[in-house]
């Protein structure tokens, strides 16, 4: 049986762990991951607010930088440093690459659905062979919609030419998994590639 498997990117195919990221980028402000989690909550606002608008392509990098600095009181230059450092944080997770290659060899169709601002989407396309791994994909910054809103899942199905029931979605955020399931998708909360492989095998059994 062949599946349409749809991958999230941050935390699934690419490293994305804001607490440790901020501890590396802002060592003068963030001493450890515990502090990093608190700062990340304020910086990224749970991917709503100004960062959510950046994810959706509704504002650009200078605008999100200015808005974060204005509401937080952090210096503009330091906020800009974090925004500029995100691409280097998005390092490939080799175990997920191996899973992708295995799934492709088994004949499954692979797609992606990622909340990703346009500048970071361009970086990923230029730095990694996304077109070799995936038939097609949706970046939130290009379609002006983001997870967990139903509209972006519906748009993805239309663009990929698939039905919700034929899709299996891999994402590391429970809210996105719940949204996908509510629309009829099968979905796996991603923790690591080995567990995703086990759960996919169960679906195919």
UniProtKB/TrEMBL annotation:
Matches recorded under SUPFAM superfamilies: HAD-like (SSF56784)
Transmembrane segments: none
Alphabetic keyword roster: Hydrolase
CDD domains registered for this protein in UniProt: HAD_sEH-N_like (cd02603)
Gene Ontology molecular-function annotations: hydrolase activity
Pfam families cross-referenced by the UniProt entry: Hydrolase
InterPro entries: HAD-like_sf, HAD-SF_hydro_IA, HAD_sf
The keyword Hydrolase is assigned to this record: yes
Protein name: Putative hydrolase of the HAD superfamily
Organism whose genome encodes this protein: Roseateles oligotrophus
């Amino acid at each position: 049986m062949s599946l349409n498997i749809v991958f999230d990117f941050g935390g699934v195919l690419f490293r994305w762990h804001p607490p440790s990221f901020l501890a590396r980028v802002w060592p003068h402000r963030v001493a450890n991951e515990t502090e990093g989690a608190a700062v990340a909550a304020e910086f990224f606002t749970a991917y709503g607010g100004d960062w959510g608008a950046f994810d959706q392509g509704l504002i650009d990098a200078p605008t999100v930088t200015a808005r974060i600095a204005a509401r937080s009181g952090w210096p503009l230059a330091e906020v800009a440093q974090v925004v500029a450092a995100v691409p280097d944080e998005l390092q490939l997770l080799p175990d997920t690459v191996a899973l992708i290659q295995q799934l492709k060899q088994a004949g499954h169709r692979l797609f992606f659905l990622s909340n990703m601002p346009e500048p970071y989407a361009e970086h990923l396309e230029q730095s990694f062979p996304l077109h070799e791994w995936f038939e097609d994909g949706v970046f939130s910054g290009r379609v002006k919609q983001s997870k967990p809103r139903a509209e972006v899942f519906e748009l993805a199905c239309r663009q990929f030419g698939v039905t919700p029931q034929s899709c299996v979605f891999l994402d590391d955020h429970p809210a996105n998994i719940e949204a996908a399931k509510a629309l009829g998708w099968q979905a796996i909360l991603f923790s690591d590639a080995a567990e995703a492989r086990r759960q996919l095998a169960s679906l195919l059994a």
